[in-house]
Amino acid sequence: MTNVGYWVIGLVAVFMLGTFMSARISPREKALGNMRERAKKMGFIPRLIPAPLWIEHTTYSGKPGGMVAYYSVVLSDATHALVQALVVDGHLNVLKGEPTLQGEPISSNLKGIQALEIQSNSAGFYWDEEADLSGEQLESMKTALISFADRMRPKIRSFTSVD
């Protein structure tokens, strides 16, 4: 075999090695996958969705929009009106819906929370998963979501008849 043959074999080997290396999962992606699996086991529905305009999310390059993580929990036997609130300086700023949660603080151990949304039978946080790749705050997130949703539960009025 000539020198050209060795060069061709070497070049093919380098390209194949490059292909295999690029197919490897990065440690960051692996941590995100593990955290999402853990969240599912805890009752969350983790999703990566296009950022709604009202949360004013920006991409890493500073452009509006992009993708954002939305972790929600299903609320059994619940019928809530829509509430959308941004987190501003650690407090909720209600943009749409009942203002009961206006100014409510978000726990200081919940990092990366951008917004809260409560719908008819679910409540969820829009958040930056990079703030907690290990998922240490998932239990606190779930507790906070259920607490906020319980406070928004419609009050049932009891009517008594007078004879």
Judged by helices, strands and strand pairing, the structural class is: alpha+beta
* Poorly predicted ranges: none
Q: Report Rg.
A: 23 Å
Order of helices and strands: HHEEEEEEH
Strand order of the largest sheet: 1-2-6-5-3-4
The portion of residues assigned to helices is: 25-40%
Quote the average pLDDT. Answer: 85
Described by strand count, sense and barrel closure, the largest sheet is: 6 strands, antiparallel
Structure annotation, total helices: 3
Describe it.
- This protein is α+β, with helices and mostly antiparallel strands.
- 31% of the residues lie in helices and 24% in strands.
- The chain has helices at residues 3-23, 27-41, 138-152; strands spanning 44-50, 67-74, 83-88, 91-96, 113-118, 122-127.
- It has a six-stranded antiparallel beta sheet with strand order 1-2-6-5-3-4.
- β3 (83-88) and β4 form a beta hairpin.
List the helices and strands and how they pair.
Layout: H1 3-23, H2 27-41, E1 44-50, E2 67-74, E3 83-88, E4 91-96, E5 113-118, E6 122-127, H3 138-152
Antiparallel strand pairs: 1-2, 2-6, 3-4, 3-5, 5-6
Give a short summary of the structure.
The protein is an alpha+beta fold and 163 residues long.
